[in-house]
Specification:
There is one protein chain. By secondary structure, the protein is an alpha+beta fold. The chain has a single domain, classed as Creatinase/methionine aminopeptidase superfamily (Creatine Amidinohydrolase). It contains 4 helices and 15 strands. Strands 1, 2, 4 and 5 form a 4-stranded antiparallel β-sheet that branches. Strands 3-12-11 form a 3-stranded antiparallel β-sheet, with no helix packed on it. Strands 6-10-13 form a 3-stranded antiparallel β-sheet, covered by helices on one side. Strand 11 (213-215) and strand 12 (222-224) form a beta hairpin. The radius of gyration is 17 Å and the shape is globular. The chain starts with 7 loop residues before the first helix and ends with a strand. 49% of the residues are buried.
């Protein structure tokens, strides 16, 4: 399905939301340490966005109750912030969607709390590499399958699983716009990428090779089926005539 093309002015508006979001993530990186809770991080994000005259788009979206998705260890997506103090060695993914004057930007980032075990550190490194491989594969005239293939190659070379039910998406006035942007694919297939498209690239990788997941009873929290660690890195990008621009960098 084709995505709605954005004008230069509209991309500029999304970029402003992305600038606030990137700054928020930088501050979160300073906050995260053993002993802090994800509820405290969630409260910080609400306050930070309010100071920047922006709002957290997740809060209230289809009933989601928090400003952030906070996913710890085997939770790979849509985790609820809670009162459990984080421990050294934990991996926590904080996913935020910023609404600035009606325009949205989306970025999730995985952080190591304290000192990660070597296996966890490798997962974080390769998941980040997969994100940028996907971004580098995106260009006007290409296809979403090019992005997915680039991500898949990084994950498979590292022996990591890919959570295939979770995909990137178009974004703009609405959180989920067409097209879907899978993290697996075949080059030359999928939706045509055109100048003016704004999409998210967001691979979710796991130490377990299958990448299989299940949903908790709350209907939101997604966990690895084998209890292994997961990590996600996500940017919002604009497809331009002469390349791509990361709007949440």
């Amino acid at each position: 399905m084709k995505g709605k093309l954005k004008t230069d002015e509209e991309i500029k508006r999304i970029r402003e939301a992305g600038r606030i979001l990137a700054e928020c993530h930088r501050e979160i990186g300073k906050l995260l340490a053993p002993g802090i809770t994800t509820l405290e991080v969630d409260a910080f994000v609400e306050s930070f966005l309010s100071r920047h005259k922006a709002t957290p788009e997740q809060k209230g979206f289809q009933g989601f109750p928090y400003a952030t998705c906070a996913s710890v260890n085997d939770v790979v997506c849509h985790g609820f912030p809670d009162k459990r103090p984080l421990e050294s060695g934990d991996i926590v993914t904080i996913d935020i969607v910023v609404n600035k004057d009606g325009w949205l930007a989306d970025s999730g980032w995985s952080y190591a709390v304290g000192r990660p075990a070597p296996e966890a550190g490798n997962l974080l490194e390769k998941a980040r590499d997969a994100l940028f491989a996907g971004i580098h594969a995106a260009h006007a005239g290409g296809r979403t399958g090019d992005i997915g293939c680039a991500i898949q190659r990084v994950a498979e070379a590292a022996g990591l699983g890919i959570v295939t039910p979770l995909v990137g998406h178009g974004i703009g006035r609405h959180l989920h716009e067409p097209p879907n942007v899978p993290s697996v694919g075949t080059p030359g297939t999928g939706t045509l990428l055109r100048p003016g498209m704004v999409i998210t690239v967001e691979p979710v990788l796991t130490i377990g090779e299958t990448g299989a997941v299940f949903w908790d009873d709350d209907g939101w929290t997604i966990r690895t089926a084998d209890g292994s660690l997961g990590a996600q890195f996500e940017h919002t990008i604009a497809i331009l005539k002469d390349g791509v621009q990361i709007l949440t960098d």
